[in-house]
């Protein structure tokens, strides 16, 4: 007969997301592999798009988010999402990962994010 362990092992806490680029008072980072961007907090539209354009120019040399001089503000606004997210354990080779599907303000540990999802 074996006795159950007296101490429970817990998984390490997920790595908190980092937002290494700051522009116009917005902390943001790339999100995923398809050119998405994420900002900490629910950021107003124009400030968020301006910060994303800044990241695209400074980080990879694009003229704007889509590297298209004819791109319009309305094009960008169509793909801006405000959501809530929680950090999860990275499993795809990234430094950090978040889950944001079905996460609400009431979810424990949830943080507000603004996402540009092309």
How are the elements arranged and paired?
Elements (H helix, E strand, L loop, with lengths): L20 E3 L2 E6 L4 E5 L4 H16 L12 H5 L2 E9 L8 E3 L11 E6 L2
Helicity level: 10-25%
Query: Got a strand count?
Result: 6
The low-pLDDT segments are: none
How is the largest sheet built, in terms of strand order?
Answer: 1-2-3-6-4-5
Largest sheet: 6 strands, antiparallel
Content-based structural category: alpha+beta
- Average pLDDT number: 89
Shape: globular
Kindly give the count of domains: 1
Number of helices: 2
Describe the overall structure.
With 118 residues, the chain is an alpha+beta fold. The protein has one domain (21-116). The chain contains two helices and six strands, in the order βββααβββ. It has helices at 45-60, 73-77; strands at 21-23, 26-31, 36-40, 80-88, 97-99, 111-116. Strands 1-2-3-6-4-5 form a six-stranded antiparallel sheet. It is globular and about 50 Å long.
Can you summarize this structure?
With 118 residues, the chain is an alpha+beta fold. The chain contains two helices and six strands, in the order βββααβββ.
Looking at this protein, list some descriptive labels:
118 residues; alpha+beta; 6 strands
């Amino acid at each position: 007969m074996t006795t159950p362990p007296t101490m429970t092992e817990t998984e390490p806490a997920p790595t908190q997301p980092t937002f290494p680029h700051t522009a116009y008072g917005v902390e943001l980072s790339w999100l995923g592999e398809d050119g998405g961007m994420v900002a900490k907090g629910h950021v107003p539209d124009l400030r968020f798009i301006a910060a994303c354009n800044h990241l695209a120019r400074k980080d990879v040399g694009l003229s704007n988010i889509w590297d298209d001089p004819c791109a319009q503000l309305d094009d960008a606004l169509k793909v801006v999402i405000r959501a809530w997210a929680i950090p999860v354990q990275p499993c795809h080779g990234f430094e950090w990962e978040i889950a944001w599907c079905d996460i609400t303000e009431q979810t424990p540990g949830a943080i507000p994010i603004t996402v540009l999802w092309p």
